[in-house]
Automatic annotation (TrEMBL):
MF (Gene Ontology): transmembrane transporter activity
PANTHER family according to UniProt: BLL3936 PROTEIN (PTHR43849:SF2)
Key word Nucleotide-binding present: no
Keyword Cell membrane among UniProt keywords: yes
Keywords associated with the record: Cell inner membrane, Cell membrane, Membrane, Transmembrane, Transmembrane helix, Transport
GO cellular component, one term: plasma membrane
Compartments, as annotated in UniProt: Cell inner membrane
Domain TRAP C4-dicarboxylate transport system permease DctM subunit: 115-536
Organism: Pseudosulfitobacter pseudonitzschiae
Bilayer-spanning residue ranges: 12-34, 40-57, 69-85, 97-119, 131-152, 164-185, 292-311, 337-370, 395-421, 433-451, 480-501, 513-533, 545-568
Name the record gives this protein: TRAP transporter permease
Amino acid sequence: MNLAILTDKMPIFARISRLMLIGMALWHLYVAFAGPPNPYIMRGVHVALALVLIYWTTDRRGVRTDTPGWIDVILGAVAMSAALYPSFNLNYITQRFLYVDPLLPIDIVVGITLVVLLLEATRRMLGPMLPITAIAFMAYGLMFTSTLPSVILEQLFMTPEGIFGIPIAVSATYMVLFILFGSLVEKMGVGQLFMDFAVALTGRQAGGPAKVACVTSGLFGSVSGSAVANVMTTGTFSIPLMKRMGFKPAFAGAVEAVASTGGQIMPPVMGAAAFVMAEYLGVGYLTVAKYALAPAILFYVALFAAVHFEAKRKGIGSVPKEDQIPIKEVLLERGHLFIPLIVIVGVLVMGYSAPYAALCGIISVVPVAAMRKTTRHYVTVENILDALENGARNVLSIAAACACAGIVVGVIDITGLGLTFSNFVIEAAQDRLVIALILSMVAGIILGMGMPTTPAYIVQVALLVPALVKLGVQVEAAHLFVFYFAILSAITPPVAMAVYAANTLSHAKIVEASWAAVKLGATGFIVPFMFVYEPAILMQGDWVHIAIVITQATIGVILLAAALQRYFFGRMDLLTSAVLFAASLCLIYPDYRITVVGLAIAGGVLALQKVRHRDTVPPTPANN
């Protein structure tokens, strides 16, 4: 965006929309600084701004437009008015007796209007999957329970348990600030810092381009919190470079998809759903980050190891010398751009809230970028306004997703479906936890197909977490379990959105790319079972035990990667790989006796590998 925003060269609604986007960003920053108003007003304004901007900036096909039709202009205005209705009638809303006082005709009309227009806005931003899910749950409540339609509408529209519930509250307070932070740091050159830092750190190693993708996507994904957006940002550089260095297109796309997906579980920022988890658990965001740290490290250690073994097996070398950058040069030129991230972590560690930490991070970005000549050119009015506009635009899909997920959660709460579904899972599992976990995993992946992580996680919390808790799973582990599979649905066929996004850059066969992504992300499917049975992986317990468990799990996931890529000291046949795979599972399982068996088997396999390949000359890496 540039300052021509106020000239007559642009369509009137393009100017109005851009001013509203910037205003939306500034309003949330002001609220973060001055303190939030009444929750109904805060959430209502957030939903209202999101809905009117969705209708004024996207057409019926979901394509961005600067010239909305008059029907969309009217729909946007109506949607905004409907979302603000509770705010303008706050005394009436808060003083009436829920489910006792009858709804007024105006309540019914405005409530139905808001639900319909919210579903359509969500479809435009995110596709049909989430609106169809919401419609299915409402149909269940209307047709298969004794709940009155007026009660369902009241739950969705006039209580803080539906559209204006916890999901949209988190979107309006936590997510919007971190999204604005991510947009601002990206405009100040942090994206280039992440790329250069990753090249400097891993570019000289075997399979350097793929390892660069792992590091870059982990860093960038931790800030962006969106697997698909991450793929399209970092993948434009990493995927062509991986292909040029000799990796198959399917493998190159899979590395980027898996690394980008893992960014949502990597502290310090993680994905948007982590803020919802903190709200549901009633703990500080830093506590959630602590729970997620070791599982995230295991995920990336396994991915990094798989890339290394594949590079060794294929004889693929480092990043070309002309593209390599000394790490000292990177840190001297752009290293100061890490300071805003350090500020956020520092403020969280000091015990302040996540919104306050995000605000401090945002305030620090521009002064930090202005510190050095190498980044000072990013600090312009145009860049700052552009960052605010883009950040607010990115908030629209999150706000729509959270509000629409609120419909699902509201129906589940008012109809008792959560309890019914929990009892079904317990009965189907016959009180056996491992079967319940597998059922929850499958249900979580299915619920997450084609749906953003945040609403997928919210739905699973309502449906699956109660059953797991009843079977004895710790609440924190149960939430993180469903959180993982909400994320991993992005790389799980048949609707693997991150893989599809990577395929637009790699041009691989989708089946081959999906299988490669599942292999690379295999640890992600196993780690949730690990921390359910062994809370030490969530940093719970004494530190000696935590260190022992995480060490053996790290060895286990490295051996798992070796088995799946069929390479360690050299190539492995299918039988040797299968034996090493079994040994890796023994190391991952939290039982010392089984761990000893796994170590013995792994030691034997690796000794045999060493003997077999002692005199074998490995392929010469292609160091271009």
